[in-house]
Amino acid sequence: MPCVGDWLNSPLSIVQGIFAQNVPNSDWEKKVTEYFKEKLKENNATNWVPSLNDVPVHYLKPNSLVKFRCMVQDMFDPEFYMGVYETVDPNTNARVLHFGKYRDVAECGPQQEIDLNSSQTVTSERQTFYCVPVPGESAWVKEISFLTEPVQARVSPSTSYTPSRHKRSYEEDEDMDLHPSKQKEQHLGESCCCGSDIHGCVEPKRLETEASAGHHVISPNCSPPLDLNFPLPGEKGPACLVKVYENWESFKVNDVLEVFGVLSVDPVLSIVNSEERDGSSLDPMECMDTAEEQRVHSPPASLVPRIHVILAQKLQHINPLLPACLNEEESKTCEFVSNFMSELSPVRAELLGFLTHALLGDSLAAEYLILHLISTVYARRDVLPLGKFTVNLSCGCRKQHSLGKLQGRTGLLMDCFSLQSYHLRMSIESMNQSRFIPHKDYTANRLVSGLLQLASNTSLVIDETQLEQGQLDTAGVHNVTALGNLITWQKVDYDFNYHRMEFPCNINVLITSEGRSLLPSDCQVHLQPQIIPPNMEEYMSSLLTAVLPSVLNKFRIYLSLLRLLDYSISDEVTKAVEEDFVEMRKNNPESVTADDLHKMLLVARWV
Q1: A Gene Ontology MF term for this entry (predicted)?
Q2: What is the pTM for the complete model shown?
C-alpha cells in the first residue's frame, strides 16, 4: 500500500498505478477521485496537505499534492486535452498507454514518440478557472488557518524535495520564465518529458485557454507588467490557473472554493508559450488568439502556477474555528453546533458588552451592530434580497474630533470579527478614479476585476466622513450608482461592453457618516456616546488588548454560526404576524408599509 508520502509528494504515481490496473476500463478516473477522497478523510489528513495560501510556491515540490483556498475571479473557455494517449518506440515498435489527466505536458520515455493517430487516443475536456486568494481575507483567518496546520505541512515539501540543480530564487525563476532560451539550455537532455503539450510533440500548440492575471509584476523583458487581476488593491498571495475535470458547471464566478490538486509549475510551459507567441507573430494563421490574449492567458508558471484539481468543494464559510461543512447531519458538526448552542445567550451578552464599550457606551448602537454582523441574504423574492441589513452609523458634527476618530477605528473593529472585509474611504477623487465594476476585456479575453467583485459575506465598511464637496465625473456617478445597487438589490452589474449582466451578491455594508448617508441604508443609527475618552486611539487599543483571545474566538464563532443556521417560523407565528400587521395598518395606514413589516421581521429573525 502507498504510504502518506506517496500520495502527498507523488500523487501522479498513485494515479499511474490506478490507471495501469484499470485500463481500458474507463472507471479509473472515478477510482482516482475515490482514492484521494478516502485518504483526505483519514485522521484530519487535509491538514497535512501544504497550502498555497501559506507556503510560497517555490518551496513546494512540483507535481505534489497541494490545497488552495480561493475565489473564482474568472472562467475561461473549455479546453481539450488528450485524456489517454499512446507512445511508440520507433526501434522496437513497443507501445505504451499514458494518461494525460492532471498534466500540462505529455510525458514519454527517452526513445518514445506520441502516436497522434492511435486508435487508443481519448480526447477529453476540462475547464480552467482563474482563481485568486479570497479578497479582503482577515489577518486572523490567515493566522489561525496557518497555526492549525501541522509543522510538517509547512516545511516538509521544501526539505524533502531535493532538486537536481541548485534552487533558484523567485527572481531568477521569473527571469528564466521570461527568457526561454535559458530554460532550453537547462532542460537539454532531460528525458522525462517530450517537451510538448498533450496534443503531441510534432508542433507545440497551446492546450490551455489560460488566464489573466491584479497586482503587478514588473519584468525586464516585458513592456507592460504582468497584472494578476486582484479585485482589491494591495492584495498579496498567489493567483492560480485551476484546471477542473468534473462537475465544473456547479461552480460560478465569485464562488469561494477549497481545491486539492496536483501542483504544476513546469518551466516547459513557458517555453511552449513563448515559442507559440513567436511563431504566431510570423504566421497569424497558426493561432487565432491575439498577442495580448496569449500573454495574459499563458503567464509564467512560476508566477501563476497551475493546479490540476482532484477534489474541490464550495465553502460555506472560511472561518477556521468552525467545521468546513455544516450540512452533514451525521458528522461531528452537529455535536459541535449543539454544544455551542447552549452558550449562545452568554456569548451574545459578552459581545454586546464589548461592542457597547467600543461604541462609547451606546448599547442601542451595539445591538444594531450585532444585527448587522449576523445578517445575510438567505433568500430572494423576485428582485428583493431577504436578509440584508445595511446600517448607517452617524456621529453628528465633524467638530466632535473624538467621534470622528471612533468612526475611523470602526473598520479596525470590524476586522476583528469579519472573515473578509474592505474599508472604502469615499472621496471625490476615489469615486472618480477607482474601478468598482468588473468589465470584460475582449482583446485579452478576460474579466478585469473591480472593487465590487467580492466573495459572499464580505464586510464592506464605507467611510463618508472624508467626503468633501466636488464634482463627480461619469465614472464617479457610475461608481456611486453601483454602490447604491449593491446596497439596495445586492447585485453588481458587470460591464460586458455591449450589455450589462447582473451578478447577485451577499455583501454586508456598514456606512459611517456625519449625518445621514448619501447612500441608501436599512437603518440609520445616530451614535450617542456616554463617555468621550481624551485619547480615542489609546482607548480602542486598550479595549482590544484586554479581551482574551479565547473570548474573541467565541465572538467569531457566534457571528459565523448564526449566519449559517437554518431558521423557520411556524404557521401559528405567521398568522399572528399577519394579524398584527393588519391591526397596525388600521391604526396608522400611512406610516406602516410593507417595507416596515419586512424590517421588523428581519430584526425579529436575528434577535
Answers
A1: chromatin binding
A2: 0.85
